[in-house]
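Recap from last week: sequence in, structure out.
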Amino acid sequence: MIFWPIFGEAWKAMGANRLRTFLTMLGMIIGVAAVILMLAFGRGAQESVNKSIADMGTNLLMILSGSTTSGGLRMGMGSTPTLTIEDARAIAELPSIERASAVMSGTAQLVQGGNNWSSLVYGVTPDYLEVRNWALASGNSFDEAALRSATQVALLGQTVADNLFPDGENPLGKTIRIKNMPFLVIGLLEVKGQSMEGRNQDDAVVIPVTTAQRRLFGTRFRGSVQYIMAQAVSAELAKEAEQEITQLLRQRHQLGDNEQNRKPDDFTLRNLSELAQTAAVAARAFALLLGAIASISLLVGGIGIMNIMLVSVTERTREIGIRLAIGALESEVLLQFLIEAVVLSAFGGLVGIVLAFFTCVGLAALMHMPFLFSPSINLLSFFFSAAIGVVFGYMPARRAAQLDPIDALRHE
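Predicted structure tokens:
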């Protein structure tokens, strides 16, 4: 088979000038490594966003209390308690809603023995964990009976448990104090990590909303809450759920339906799934942009290969003339120089993949950044680098094959 002798000649020719061969490959090494690095960290960022979306919950709708005006100043959303636990229960009965939970939150000081910690305390109804897609690592949640009796029980996030029980003691069955009131720990929440806005979701305590109202934070009127978290049956029904919730709350709050007595909404509805999808699209576009920018370095590496191959053809003109004069075919000369270009680019691509892997591991550990090292992307990068060798190596190879043997032999 004629390929292997030609490959051997090409390999020997590259070995004759090792430094130049290495510098030529360096462009492809850096190009492939840059593409893989950018895509790995871009995909890692995208995966991180997707995880945050999954941790937040699926098909989520948030209904916030209305705003109020004081002294000519309009306060923000949630400043007027217009929502109640009964509103949440009515929303949960809508056909487009899977479940809903009323929420009242505030910061409180927690104490256990000689340890104390300030954390966010969520007063919720029993469906809250399912709405937020938040599982229990151990223990049990509270039920409707605990809600009705305003039982002083608590579920701890991992950060709170680590700070109140630093020696690794099991918090289940222990008593902690929230605002100097005793609460029995009945469950430990699964680790969730940071939210999309960078807040530590594990730095939280979950208690019955009635307990939060009567024991900790108080309310302006019985049953009022700050906001309601609702989960639509599916993403397709989210828009329908928005309309149903708006219609239901306007009816319950007696805001009027006709033009004469119609009042503005005393609540604000947000579709968190749409915000999450926007963030996911932005992360995906960011990953593709990084890959596109990095791929320019591959183009530069290909131009470097073409430049060096043109120089090599000029230097080896007499050698090419001798080969053609003693009977070498133009196709054989073309194949030899094409093989040199492909070997340079493909071998550079392999080294670039190895370099990218170790760089990814090092940077991820050093900067605490996620990365997703995909075998399919590595394989694609390798074949793309080989293809660049063919594209940019063809012109010099064609030039060498078309040399006139007589003129080539006269070349000094």
